[in-house]
Amino acid sequence: MDAIRTDAASKGLKPAPRMIPPHRVPPARDLPLPAYLRSIRDNGLLGFPKAAFEEPVTRRGLMGRSSFVLSDPEAIRRVLVDNQANYARTVGTLRILRPILGDGLLISEGAAWRHQRRALAPAFTPRAIDGLMPHIDRAIRDGIEALSPRAAKGPLDLFAAFHGLALDIAGRSMFSVGMDRHGPELRAFITGYGARIGRPHVLDVLMPPGLPVPLDWARRRFRRRWIPFLDSVIAARAAQPTDGRGDLLDLLAAARHPETGAPFSPEELRDQVSTMILAGHETTAGTLFWASYLLALFPDIQERVADEARAADLSDPTGCHADGRLPFTRAVIDETLRLYPAAFVVVRRALGPDDVAGHPVKAGDILLVSPWVLHRHRRLWDDPEAFDPSRFLPGGSAPARFSYLPFGAGPRICIGAQFALSEAVLALARLCAAFRFEHLGREPILPVAVVTTQPDRPGAFKLIPRR
Ligand code: HEM
Question: Is the full-model pTM beyond 0.85?
Fold first, then answer.
């Protein structure tokens, strides 16, 4: 595999000084099994040894099975695209996510997944996302206004602030209304789940399907409270007059089964609502956090984003993430998703035997395609640890196929990718036009990944209003 030359040097520009954000040095070799299993619960990034960042494919034994990390394009293509029907979600993923997501798109499989995906596709076309843009923009503007009085006082926990912002964007796009009323409870549900019962436990990974593990009881109890809550939010939206602009709930309600023409039942609709809110907001909150942290570390880049944002006409921001109005801001988001991919790993379980780039795979083996590893892979990127948005500027050479996968690949690629990019680029531009970010903390902030890639500490930031 050739290294990709997408940096400033490859375009004949004067090479910029290397900007290396703090990063974790991977373990020199595979962690012993107990430590590896602990890392799945506490920080999945520690489970990838140095070799994973250097070799196309690595393998470790896992209780009589093999677990492969794939960074070879052919291997990734085999698993996520060409022979994807042979690969399913893992038992652990289903155990952890089903209580909160029900049988929505993210965890459904087989024919049920195919029907859902086709039914939902019209809700996520670029045109449909354009229609949601007024909701997204309104939430961003209100979020910035709410941040202003708190901003300069500092220190501000930016991750918590962006979590709230992303939840508000998700809520407004879904229900047309702000999340003042339901937001705090929704957040409490989600953070409560993520803090304990949503964390992968050793038994989640090791126990065969069908056999309950102790956390399953707590998860069931959670679901018994979660469903009435979601139903009440959906009912409140149905009872409330909207501004007539249409929202994601309208689009989901308009979805039709591709064969029978039937709409989703109320239970199915509720599962899709929770799936979209859950899959969408934490990933975006993390992306905005890491982008802001990088900009606080590298003020020259921050000034460039601010200049671009202030010069751009964003009176109608529809499409601004891709239409050339904010190319540098978009490149910063793309580079943030390279260095801190919100979805740090895509996991599959082999249903039957296969040959993956010369490696024999048995039924039950685990296949990991990790954007965290892939995006920092020595053979795939020049200077992989360096923050260099110019890799993604228009006119540069695009990353090689299957080397940059923040949204996954193949039929199960993120359905919300356009939504996420529209939201993240516009939010970052508006935030940088409004504030200058400073990181007050002395300790570097490092990523920790459980379900998504998050900061290891709240981080103390100051946001100085720009005139
Ligand atoms: C920066 C933001 C985001 C990132 C990095 C991200 C990443 C991903 C990745 C890597 C997958 C593939 C998982 C797999 O193959 O196992 C995925 C799937 C999915 N994402 Fe996202 N996502 C983001 C935002 C969103 C948003 C905003 C929504 C919804 C509004 C969303 C909804 C989904 C759904 C429903 C799936 C499952 C698709 C399927 O299985 O057919 N995501 N996402």
Answer: yes
